[in-house]
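Why predict the complex rather than its parts? Because the way molecules touch one another can change local conformation, and only a joint prediction can capture that. The input here totals 816 residues.
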Amino acid sequence: MSKIIGIDLGTTNSAAAAIESGSPKILENNEGNRTTPSIVAINKSGERIVGLLAKRQSVANPKNTIFSVKRFIGRKFSDSEVQNDKKWLPYEIKESDNGGIEIKMGEKWHKPEEISAMVLAKIKADAEAKLGEKITEAVITVPAYFDDSQRQATKNAGEVAGLKVRRIINEPTAAALAYGLNKKNDEQIVVYDFGGGTFDVSVLEVTDNTIEVKATGGDTHLGGDDFDKKINDYLVVEYKKQEGIDISKDPLALQRLKEAAEKAKHELSTSLETEINLPYISSDSSGPKHFLIKLTRAKFESLVSDEIERSIKLTEQVVKEAGFKVGDIDEIILVGGQTRIPAIQAAVKKAFGKEPHQGVNPDEVVAIGAAIQAEILSAKDEGRKPEGEVKDVLLLDVTPLSLGIETLGGVFTKLIDKNTTIPTEKTQVFSTAADNQPSVEIHVLQGEREMAVGNKTLARFMLDGIPPAPRGTPQVEVKFDMDANGILNVSAKDKASGKTQSVRVEATTSISKEEVERLKQEAAKYADEDRKNKEGVEVRNQAENLVYVAEKSLKDAGDKVSADVKEGITKKIDALKAVKDGQDTEAIKTATSELSSEVQKVGQHLYNKDKDQGQSQSGQSDQPEGSEQKEEKTDEGEKSEEKPANGDKPEEK
Amino acid sequence: MNDKIKKNKEVDNGKDFRLELEQCQKEKEEYLNSWKRAKADLINYQKDEAKRLEEMAKFSNWSLMEDLISVIDNFELAIEVLEKSGQAEKGIYMIKTKLEDSLKKRGLEKMAVSVGQPFDPSLHEVMGQMEAEVESGAIAEEIEGGYILNGRVIRPARVRVAK
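Output of the joint prediction:
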């Protein structure tokens, strides 16, 4: 069955999206762009051009280049909006026989829906090229304030373009779908949509999987173009001040200025200051003139503050019309490229006292939502669950919390991270913490805390019969295998003896949502404390190891090192021993590094004295062996040769 | 009598097993198919991903190229002014060529635009119209050069067309 695509048919730009491999993706057009200008033109040779190409020739062909047709679709010629728009549009429109509108393009008069159909036909063709399959059905979005006749006309446009329009949905509803807010219950949502040419606000109410539009408002002639114009005007005035030249009379200079203004606006969304740098922009009798000016974010914000304030007033008004107070609003969604402007985000946040939803590209969020609606419809047709919501026919669950074991010093070492899709299998090799340690205890835990004590115990078991060996030498392979039902099999195998022990834990995924939330919050709350604790443990483990190594090297070296070297090391060992069990991490670190450099002298000493001897013993100084404390806790040791003398967990960044 | 009951039971059991076997085979088919599908999905995803990465590598310097193209534009403006006053030094041309060459090595091509050539919106953008001795609608003047990066128009040539 062919895909249903989602189309955001905009006033200035349109976009299309479809579900690919389970998630909605914007379909790039033939020119490689993610949006297509909603512009159609007939050129001198009578060819029809659509999109970016139509835009490129518009200057030379203004009468036959049709844009903003969405302002006319499904309207009556007598509508006051139509009469107003008629004044500033460069192309001709007239009243049709039935009181509707006709637009002149080339020699022919077209209905607005025919023009929209040409845009949709290009989108359809480009989507087919991109997806490599025929597209016959679509979901198209319209503004929430569109009446029945405007919706019907949009639907007709789709049909003319060869698309069966499965559903016309509201733009704000699509935005809410893109953020998955349709799954909420009893929530009030404000969609603040600040586009290039129009500003729309809608208040939505979600109950039982249905989204209802409670009120809409805005200004059909307020948009980002106004912002660009403000910057432009400011720059013209500044240039006049700098050079005494009125640049607004020079169309080429103006074009360069316009582009620079738009670029500056974009840059000021991420940086606090930008530079307009336009060499050779004009000239006078004294020679060429350049334009160099700094534009700060503060200056830009002061230029557009009226517009932003107006948008907030309109928003508050719509909330009131919907019968709500600002405080009743649960979620705010930002749509439209202009919402990237930090001042807009701040103003919205201030008005509602809440962080608005961001994350989905505001230029694409409506098309993404339309694609999600399309997928819901396809899934229904095919009698399956929608992709993305539930992956394919298979129900693939995720682990709600991380799973792992306790390692030396009470640290929680994760094997399976939270949100891993199951079934999954992870294996890691651990080792012993003491010489000749006969067994290790595998303490299986679930949770997000860095330290084992904060997490939930799922199981404990012992693996014994480990042949006597120095610490860090035995290789105990721990395997976590979680099947599709969330049943966890943990096994531990001593690689040398082949001895294996295992345990089965059921229902690791059946934790209630509230419980998962609580545990996650707890983990976040104690994150700092846990990190410090863990660091403390690591530092102590390292110290412990070094003391062991140092004592062992002294013993092994016997008389081969001089007494003063020995004494130096012994002193440092005692110093480290004195602090290592305390809480002063910094002191332990210092004592550890001092001992470490002291111990190196043994190696140097031996090496200089006897090369053969030195070689056979060189391993000693970096083997993590021996300890008199804490038996039975496992300690990572797979890479003990590369990661000497400490309890570092390789999985931690 | 007892034998008969026993026999019937066996028949029933046989039927049950057959049904069960049928059910199992059906399930097996279903599972095998979905497993194959999942495997295929993954392989296809990996292929798509590889293609996307390749595209990304090809066009990752798109915005840098755009910025540098505007530098070339400025160079051209400067050279034009210097030429008029007879101050254009060879060095300036050399620097410009150096910049252009290094961009060329990375896949950037300059479009050839000539006066009288028909206007093509897939390559050109109209900035204005002027009186000219070429066919109406044809290119009368090139204002800024057009560029193609790895086969894709990164910036159309800005032109004026004849009235």
